[in-house]
Specification:
Elements: H1 11-21, H2 27-33, E1 42-46, H3 53-61, E2 67-72, H4 76-88, E3 94-99, H5 106-116, E4 123-129, H6 138-143, E5 144-148, H7 149-152, H8 156-163, H9 171-181, H10 185-196, H11 202-205, H12 211-220, H13 227-236, E6 241-243, H14 244-251, H15 256-265, E7 270-272, E8 277-280, H16 282-295, H17 297-313, H18 317-326, H19 330-346, H20 350-357, H21 362-377, H22 384-396, H23 405-417, H24 421-426, H25 438-452, H26 461-471, H27 481-497, H28 505-518, H29 525-539, H30 546-552, H31 558-576, H32 579-590, H33 597-613, H34 617-631, H35 636-645, H36 649-660, H37 670-684, H38 688-702, H39 717-724, H40 733-740, H41 743-758, H42 761-769, H43 776-783, H44 787-801, H45 806-815
Parallel strand pairs: 1-4, 1-5, 2-3, 3-4
Antiparallel strand pairs: 6-8, 7-8
Helix pairs in contact: 1-10, 4-5, 13-14, 13-15, 14-15, 14-17, 16-17, 17-18, 18-19, 19-20, 19-21, 21-22, 23-25, 25-26, 26-27, 27-28, 27-29, 28-29, 29-31, 31-32, 31-33, 32-33, 33-34, 33-35, 34-35, 35-36, 35-37, 37-38, 42-44, 43-44, 44-45
Length: 819
């Protein structure tokens, strides 16, 4: 409980603190009063205690240009005096302002209503209170504007302004504070006061059970209730939102619904959610949850257990889990997780489930952690030793007596994880009876496809097509978002590893929609799917969303996070080039102490190509040595990198031998990149037939992936090779035309055309001599000109190519097809 120190907690002291703070200027609220000069005659401000109604009134009154007659409705004499002064005034515009209308006497309300309905054209009325205590007249229906408690709640920007002069909290801290306080003015002012006293951690700890707020709520809310209302309010608050039926169940009062309706009408920090449910303000709910345990802990636990049964009976397993955890019964929680834990994971509640598992007794925890952790690890099992350890834990853990259909499915997954494929073939098909849930039935279909669709990691089109069908948006899986995303991610993992004829575009779009609308950020399924989507976009040279990847990739694990960071760096290198982009890629490669294989496989070919074009031969050699050590000397990636470093007949032969070995070991782009390198090399040496054959092979490898990226690695040269042979590509011509139509390819060709037009014939000739690393004197001697002439021409070339030196000029020339 947070203590406010020297501030007392009576209502008057807190109100005085609100008044002294002045809050902040909120033009969005004061604009409502501007309508006074047009059609509105009455403004009503109806909000719970502590919402800042009185402060808003005083802020507005300070800006009014006219006579203001103010009264506190709790003082009947003030009300009559203000009304009398408004009638007697000779001003052209008179404002009658009545605060705390809900505390007024019957006689005062009658006089205020008469003033509102008087028809006096000069008079404008502002009424404030917890609720509207006046009878509604026909005139007020059409000429009243209202400000509610939700309107008075502070926005993030307003809260930042309020706390700015006492070291504003971070974005995450502020979001948490607003979620716990609901933007309630009193809470934010108290937080500000505590930060002024030097309590920097108050933003993370402050909620409805903080001492000043709790005392204020006791004074302002509980003390104003009769015993029946207080009993219902305290004991119905088992959840932030409760229905009337649930309130009856947990309080034992048949009138609980009627009492909650009374409290909602009185604006006692209880709001009607819909026709039959009520929502407690976050501040009030946190206070009541703590108050229950202070008053009677066994009764509080019993109420949560009853709520858990109530939610379970209605199929709301998420709420039932939360109530079971709050009931603080480890045995009951283990039983609940045994019965419903799998289904909750299917629905995307993996985070709450795994946190709940940690609250059960140790004998149940090992089994639940192993089995439910397994569901979160499929389908990839990148950590085989970790999976084996979980399997050993599960083998020795206590097993429940009654086995379910999901237990059989989990056994099958464990067999698959442990690579006991013979066991998988010998197993009869798993059967699920008609009484099992939809999630269990869908998981069964998924497991049957996944564990029998390939042998030792072999991926095939039939398997990916079956998974796409299972997880497609048209399937009956709308309530099983997490499981559907897992299935679609499995299909993506197949397509991203090897060429496939399965059209994944609709799947990718659906994953993106689901990720934004409801994926649980605490499990890794959505994150891995986003990273795989980024890989797919990189293949196609589509724009990569930096903000989305930076948000999601850390949740996907270190390997995929490193890969996505590498893809972003490679995308920049391919699109813009330059030393800075290359340095970023090299840093990711060389600072990766674990030698992440997939990242290196994607990076080595473009990185070495860029290093060679920039004239940094030592860097190219260093990258080639690392590639050979990590990926193997005879991998397609290593052979391609070696060929780029030494584009000679021997390198050509070694690379073709590696290509003859079949599918790439590490990245599906490797084949296309290798054939593009061979095609460009053959084209440079005017070996027309060899260039045509190589570019055809490149198209065949790129087409299943929809890949454009390999054709951007060598600047403008691949487009030159493609256009020169477009008539000889036969059935692959449409693929080539689609690649040439890609915006990045078109931009590269346009840049090449513009750049070539800028250079004179002599400058183009000089530029072609630069890769030979001759000195200026040697170049001058070969061209029969002075050294100063060569220097002048080089300066002109650098200016036209917008580069800073010889290495960058060579790279730019290759990129636009001049070399």
């Amino acid at each position: 409980m947070i203590d406010l120190g020297d501030i007392t907690h009576a209502r008057g002291s807190v109100v005085a603190l609100l008044q002294r703070s002045g809050l902040v200027d909120r033009p969005r609220l004061r604009r409502i009063f501007d309508a006074f000069e047009r059609e509105i005659r009455v403004v009503g401000i109806w909000a719970p205690a502590g919402s800042g109604k009185s402060v808003l009134l005083r802020q507005w009154m300070a800006t009014v240009d006219g006579l203001v007659c103010f009264a506190d409705a709790a003082d009947e004499a003030q009300v009559f005096d203000a009304i009398q002064r408004s009638r007697a005034a000779g001003a052209s515009r008179v404002y009658l302002v009545i605060d705390q209308l809900d505390r007024s006497s019957a006689q005062a309300r009658e006089a205020i209503a008469a003033a509102v309905d008087s028809g006096d054209g000069r008079l404008r009325v502002v009424l404030a209170g917890r609720f509207d205590a006046l009878p509604v007249s026909p005139a007020r229906w059409v000429r009243t504007s209202e400000i509610s408690g939700a309107d008075l709640a502070f926005t993030a920007d307003e809260a930042t302004s309020l706390l700015a002069d006492v070291t504003a909290p971070t974005g995450k801290q502020l979001r948490g504070l607003l979620a716990r306080t609901g933007g309630w003015a009193t809470a934010l002012v108290l937080v500000r006061r505590l930060r002024e006293t030097g309590d920097g951690s108050v933003v993370d700890r402050f909620d409805g059970d903080s001492r000043p707020v709790a005392d204020y709520l006791v004074t302002e809310v509980l003390s104003a209730l009769d015993p029946e209302q207080e009993e219902v309010l305290v004991w119905s608050a088992v959840a932030p939102t409760v229905s009337a039926a649930l309130a009856v169940t947990v309080t034992g009062s048949p009138d609980a619904g009627r009492v909650l309706e009374q409290l909602a009408c009185a604006n006692s920090l209880v709001m009607r959610q819909d026709a039959d449910s009520y929502r407690f303000h976050p501040i009030l709910w946190a206070f009541l949850a703590a108050e229950q345990r202070r008053r009677d802990l066994p009764r509080a636990n019993s109420a949560h257990a009853a709520a858990a049964r109530w939610f379970s009976a209605r199929g709301d397993l998420r709420s039932a889990l939360a109530q079971t955890v709050r009931a603080a019964d480890a045995a009951a929680l283990a039983a609940f997780l045994d019965q419903h834990g799998y289904e909750l994971i299917f629905q995307g509640e993996s985070g709450p489930v795994m946190r709940a598992v940690r609250a059960v007794a140790p004998r149940d925890r090992e089994r639940l952690e192993a089995d439910m952790g397994l569901l979160l690890a499929i389908p990839h099992f990148p950590d085989r030793p970790g999976a084996a350890q979980l399997l050993r834990v599960r083998t020795h853990a206590q097993r429940r007596a009654e086995r379910t259909a999901v237990d059989e499915i989990v056994d099958a997954l464990w067999a698959h994880a442990n690579r006991r494929r013979g066991d998988m073939r010998d197993r009869p098909p798993l059967a699920v009876d008609a009484s099992c849930s939809r999630g269990t039935a869908l998981l069964l279909e998924y497991v049957q496809v996944w564990t029998t669709g390939g042998v030792d990691g072999e991926m095939n089109d039939n398997m990916s097509a079956a998974l796409v069908h299972l997880g497609s948006p048209t399937a009956d899986t709308s309530e099983l978002r997490w499981l559907r995303m897992l299935i679609l991610e499995s299909a993506l993992s197949i397509v991203s590893r090897a060429p496939s004829r399965v059209d994944m575009e609709p799947v990718l779009l659906q994953i993106e929609r689901d990720r934004l609308s409801g994926a649980d950020e605490r499990d890794t399924v959505a994150a891995r799917a986003v990273c795989l989507q980024a890989t797919r976009a990189y293949h196609r040279a589509d724009p990569l969303s930096t903000s989305v990847l930076e948000h999601w990739s850390p949740r996907a694990g270190a390997r995929l996070d490193h890969l996505t960071q590498m893809l972003l760096a490679l995308d920049e290198l391919t699109r813009r080039g330059g030393g800075a982009a290359l340095a970023r890629v090299v840093a990711l490669i060389e600072n990766d102490l674990s030698d992440t294989v997939s990242s290196l496989a994607y990076a080595v070919v473009p990185a070495i190509g860029s290093a060679i074009r920039q004239g940094d031969v030592p860097l190219a050699d260093r990258l080639l040595a690392r590639c050979r050590r990590v990926l193997g000397e005879y991998s397609v990636e290593s052979a391609t990198a070696a060929f780029l470093r030494h584009p000679n007949r021997e390198g050509d032969h070694v690379l073709r031998e590696a290509l003859a070995g079949g599918a790439p070991r590490f990245t599906p782009l490797a084949l296309a990149c290798a054939w593009v390198a061979l095609a460009v090399h053959a084209h440079r040496h005017r070996r027309d037939a060899s260039a045509t054959a190589a570019i055809l092979n490149a198209l065949m490898c790129a087409a299943p992936l929809g890949a454009v990226r390999p054709f951007l690695q060598e600047g403008n040269e691949p487009s030159v090779v493609l256009r020169a042979r477009i008539e000889r590509l036969g059935a692959w011509r449409p693929v080539a035309e689609e690649i040439l139509a890609h915006p990045d390819m078109a931009m590269s060709e346009k840049a090449a055309t513009v750049t070539i037009a800028k250079l004179t014939a002599r400058e183009q000739e000089l530029l072609r001599e630069l890769p030979a690393h001759q000195s200026i004197a040697e170049i001058a001697g070969r061209r029969y000109v002075s050294a100063n002439t060569v220097k002048s021409q080089l300066r002109s070339i650098y200016s036209k190519l917008q580069v800073n030196g010889r290495a960058e000029a060579v790279e730019a020339a290759r990129r636009v097809g001049l070399l």
